[in-house]
């Protein structure tokens, strides 16, 4: 499964980059395939391991912020691996045709 999620601290002002970095650090240290862009961090793996990473990323922000917003989208496809790469490659292939 692939989960794309965004963790946003609330009540800490406008500059939230350092809080988001705490969440992304958890994801990167998990060892699971992941990507971060301007809006979301995506992580790929089995249900329990991915959801544990999301939970810990939220907890990292929650430890420093009075309130946390979480947006999450999941692509649940048993048996599919390397979706983070293959989904993008498919789109790029169609764009180059």
Task: Characterise the protein shown here.
- The structure is a single chain.
- The chain is an alpha+beta fold and 97 residues long.
- The protein has one domain: 2-Layer Sandwich (Alpha-Beta Plaits).
- 44% of the residues lie in helices and 26% in strands.
- It is built from three helices and four strands.
- The chain has helices at 17-29, 47-62, 83-96, and strands at residues 2-10, 34-36, 41-44, 67-75.
- Strands 2-3-1-4 form a four-stranded antiparallel β-sheet, covered by helices on one side.
- β2 (34-36) and β3 (41-44) form a beta hairpin.
- α1 packs antiparallel against α2.
- The longest helix is centred in the middle third of the chain and has 16 residues, at 47-62.
- The chain is globular, with a radius of gyration of 15 Å.
- The model has no long low-confidence stretch (mean pLDDT 95).
- Belongs to the UPF0045 family.
- Residues 3-92 form the Thiamine-binding protein domain.
- One of its GO terms (cellular component) is cytosol.
- This is MTH1187 family thiamine-binding protein.
- InterPro entries: MTH1187/YkoF-like, Thiamine_BP, UPF0045_domain.
Please summarize what this structure is.
44% of the residues lie in helices and 26% in strands.
């Amino acid at each position: 499964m692939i989960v794309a999620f965004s963790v946003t601290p609330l009540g800490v002002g406008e500059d939230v980059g350092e809080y988001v970095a705490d969440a992304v650090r958890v994801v990167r240290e998990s060892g699971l395939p992941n990507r971060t862009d301007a809006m979301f961090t995506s992580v790929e793996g089995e249900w329990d391991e991915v959801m544990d990473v999301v939970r810990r990323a939220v907890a990292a922000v929650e430890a420093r912020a009075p309130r946390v917003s979480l947006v999450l989208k999941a692509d649940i496809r048993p048996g599919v691996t390397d979706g983070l790469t293959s989904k993008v490659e498919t789109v790029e292939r169609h764009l180059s045709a």
